[in-house]
Amino acid sequence: MVDRGKIIDGKAIAAQLRQELKSEVESLREKGTVPGLTVILVGNNQASETYVRGKIKACAEVGIHSDLVRMSPEITEDALLDKIRQLNVDSSVHGILVQLPLPDHISPDRILSEIDPDKDVDGFHPINAGRLVTGLDAFLPCTPHGILELLKRTGIEIAGKHAVVVGRSNIVGKPISILLQRENATVTMCHSRTVDLKSHTRQADILVAAVGKLHVITADHVKPDSVVIDVGMNRDENGKLAGDVDFEGVRPIVSYITPVPGGVGPMTIAMLLYNTCQSAKMKSR
Ligand code: GUN
């Protein structure tokens, strides 16, 4: 009898990672480098406020210095670009993060392309995206990198497995598909125009759901004893945080599953701290 329905505890794995990073930060500080992250928050989107608060709190926990720059929703694109240019040349700043989404009159592409790629701890700059695809050293985007750590630290074999990714965003779907290929998985990409989604997802040894829609993956979408990673952060009919996967329906069928909350989410923040440490380390050499 196969052991089914095991939960991948992202909260615990992220706490372990933060513990490891805390010692790295200590040794950097002993050598005279205080890792520093600046977060820019434009406007007052409630979800962004919550995410940013989590990031700032996590920095403090591991000893990373953080600054929160708040900007009015009416700020011009030029003023935001100027702020980024100023942070690019500030040697105490190792990581720059512009929280998305931005107001409609500001182009996220222009803004993200202005960040020094060596301080791009979100891994969203086109140079880092290109480096990831070509297999060069790069800051990896935090959510996909966090998913990889969850799989590795849980001891899940990736090489030779069939991974199916649902969702093709630049932030999650595309980069996780590349990372899984790099780990020698065979990867299928599904998206909003995929015909007969189930016929693909049912073949997945590892299924990554990154759609952003409540419960699009149900019991009849999964293969017995597979591994399911849920990247969704949706609100259910009672206003509760819930994933792209119908957790209760899917859990009894699969070998491993990530919960929402407490799965991928905490890992995203942990990998941001990791990238900020990496950046500080590069500068301290
Ligand atoms: N908005 C939602 N997720 C993210 C993220 O990972 N980074 C940034 N900068 N903004 C986001």
From TrEMBL:
Q: What is this protein called?
A: Bifunctional protein FolD
- What does the sequence similarity comment in the record state about its family? Belongs to the tetrahydrofolate dehydrogenase/cyclohydrolase family.
Q: Which reaction does it catalyse?
A: (6R)-5,10-methylene-5,6,7,8-tetrahydrofolate + NADP(+) = (6R)-5,10-methenyltetrahydrofolate + NADPH; (6R)-5,10-methenyltetrahydrofolate + H2O = (6R)-10-formyltetrahydrofolate + H(+)
Q: Write the record's keywords in alphabetical order, separated by commas.
A: Amino-acid biosynthesis, Histidine biosynthesis, Hydrolase, Methionine biosynthesis, Multifunctional enzyme, NADP, One-carbon metabolism, Oxidoreductase, Purine biosynthesis
Which pathway does the database say it acts in? Answer: One-carbon metabolism; tetrahydrofolate interconversion
SUPFAM superfamilies hit by this protein: Aminoacid dehydrogenase-like, N-terminal domain, NAD(P)-binding Rossmann-fold domains
Give the function comment from the record.
Catalyzes the oxidation of 5,10-methylenetetrahydrofolate to 5,10-methenyltetrahydrofolate and then the hydrolysis of 5,10-methenyltetrahydrofolate to 10-formyltetrahydrofolate.
Q: Which residues form the Tetrahydrofolate dehydrogenase/cyclohydrolase catalytic domain?
A: 8-122
NCBIfam families assigned: PRK10792.1, PRK14186.1
| UniProt lineage | Bacteria, Bacillati, Bacillota, Bacilli, Bacillales
Record-level GO BP terms = L-histidine biosynthetic process; methionine biosynthetic process; purine nucleotide biosynthetic process; tetrahydrofolate interconversion
Any idea where the Tetrahydrofolate dehydrogenase/cyclohydrolase NAD(P)-binding domain is? 141-283
- Identify the gene encoding this protein: folD
